[in-house]
Amino acid sequence: MYLTYAEALYELNGAITDGQLNESLNLVRGRAGVAPLTNQLATTYSLNILEEIRRERTVELFQENNRFNDLKRWGIAEEVLSAPLFGPIIEGTDYETNTDLYDPSKFQFGEGVKQYTVLKDLRER
């Protein structure tokens, strides 16, 4: 209810005060031990408050069957759900050579490749 209240306040006024954040969204964040969201924090890190409220709702209501309806209600379902999905194919496994397990020719939209360097960057630190 706190998340819905924060979202409604923002949608109604086009903004939300720190006091309103403290009586809604930050109660949820505080329970999880997460630092409170403030307008100053959003400004400092170039965050969009509405996106942060929606992100908080997504995280908090994970696996409660609200996401699809939220995406439709926010008018972003087509954009979010049509984004390419990537999953790992681990080199040196049966997936590389066994087309019964992995056959990209059967994919409706083909196969995409995305290079990730995060793990490499972490190992170098």
TrEMBL record:
Keywords annotated in UniProt: Cell outer membrane, Membrane, Signal
Bilayer-spanning residue ranges: none
Protein's UniProt name: RagB/SusD family nutrient uptake outer membrane protein
Pfam families tied to this protein: SusD_RagB
Keyword Membrane: yes
Family under the similarity heading: Belongs to the SusD family.
InterPro entries tied to this protein: SusD_RagB_dom, TPR-like_helical_dom_sf
Subcellular location: Cell outer membrane
Residues of the RagB/SusD domain: 1-83
